[in-house]
Amino acid sequence: MESASNEWISELLLGMRLSGLDYRRFQMAPPFGIRFDIQSSCAQFHFIAQGPVFLNTPDAGVLRLESGDAVLLPRGGHHQLLSSQDVKCRDINGIETIPLCEAFSCVTDCPDGTCRSRDVRIFSGRMTFDLGGMHPLISLMPRVMHVGTLLARYPEVLPMLEAMERESRLERVGAAGILARLADVVAACIVRGWVECGCGDVGGWLAALRDPRLGAVIAAVHREPGRDWSVASMAAEMGSSRSVFAQRFREALGISPLNYVTQLRMRLASQWITEKDMSIDQVAWQLGYGSQAAFSRAFKRATGKTPGSLRHPA
């Protein structure tokens, strides 16, 4: 059971793509309130270099964040960062920023006459978050993922948080790039910790992965997406009849085995074309299609788009 669990965790982390779109460094004197409304296709990361700060989300309530805390909102969405729970908020897009370098800007709101020791310093990043073939996992993640829950089990995260605090405070040359890379790594560690700790109390897709026999089939499909998969070959991996396998698969995941394989292939194809700049011929071959034409028809049928449109978006 442990071996199967480690296998699909490795598959998940291998396919994870988490990279920053834009970053902001805030230094603000209380009282303040910042409202974020991040599209659901993006994740939002916040690191509190000097707090405290209150994070308010519609469905997760209010969370007090202290200096050194970090949170990841894997599905973005509407949320607020507040110096206290009763202050009014300004939309992040309406706050003046000072560009420091590409995709990195600074927000400073510290009126004269206020004590600098009370300033709050926050480092935030808006990130693309893609798990490739494991993409269904994102919808099962908690609304807010807090690094504080990981430190006892993963002490190696603490030096990264301390490095982020130093870079944010000292403003050394190259701090923007170092902060961005550290944020990417810490966010990935938060996801890994949640996965390794059992992914909380969720069922469905994860329940299938935790089933040693059914999980082994899913891991095999992710490992070899271009194999000529059939219900019979997947049932053989599980060691059961086709009818028993197909029924258990649909009950656990809500779709048929072959539909699952097709969805996985199309997600991987999109990732390989847009991120790895693979040719359509290469993608077709890697995913087990006999020709570019056969792959293009399958892609259009599944997504409503042609593979070529990914290279030349309208």
- Indicate the overall shape: elongated
- Strands of the widest sheet, in order across it, are 9-10-1-11-3-6-12
Tell me which CATH architecture of the largest domain applies here. Answer: Sandwich
The stretches of 5 or more residues where confidence is low (pLDDT under 50) are none
Fraction in helix: 40-55%
Nearest-angstrom radius of gyration? Answer: 22 Å
Q: How many domains, in number, for the residues?
A: 2
Report, as a whole number of angstroms, the end-to-end distance: 47 Å
What's the total count of β strands?
12
The helix-strand sequence is HEEEEEEEEEEEHEHHHHHHHHH
Could you state the CATH homologous superfamily of the largest domain?
A: Jelly Rolls
Output the CATH topology of the largest domain.
Jelly Rolls
| Residue share in β-strands | 15-25%
CATH first level of the largest domain = Mainly Beta
Main sheet properties:
7 strands, mixed
List the total number of helices.
11
**Structural class estimated from helices and strands:** alpha+beta
Mean pLDDT: 82
Task: Explain the overall architecture.
The protein is of the alpha+beta class and 314 residues long. It has two domains: 182 residues, Jelly Rolls, CATH 2.60.120; 106 residues, Arc Repressor Mutant, subunit A (Orthogonal Bundle), CATH 1.10.10.60. It is 42% helix and 23% strand. The protein has eleven helices and twelve strands. A seven-stranded mixed β-sheet has the order 9-10-1-11-3-6-12, with helices on one face. A hairpin with a 3-residue loop joins strand 4 and strand 5. Helix 3 packs antiparallel against helix 4. The longest helix is centred in the middle third of the chain and has 22 residues. The radius of gyration is 22 Å and the shape is elongated. The N and C termini lie far apart (47 Å). The mean pLDDT is 82.
